[in-house]
Amino acid sequence: PLQFQQEKHAEMTNELQFNSALLSVASNPIATRVLIERLDALRAELDSISSPKLQSLETIATDLSNERLLKHTKSGVQPRVAYTLVDIFHLHSPNAPYNALQLEAIFKLFVSQFKHLMDPEGKDYPLHIHILKTAAVNDIFTLVADIPKRDELIDSLFETLYSVISSDRFESVLDPLVLDILITVIKEANVVLSMK
Question: For residue 51, what are the contacts with CB-CB under 8 A and spacing of at least 6?
Answer without folding.
Answer: 14
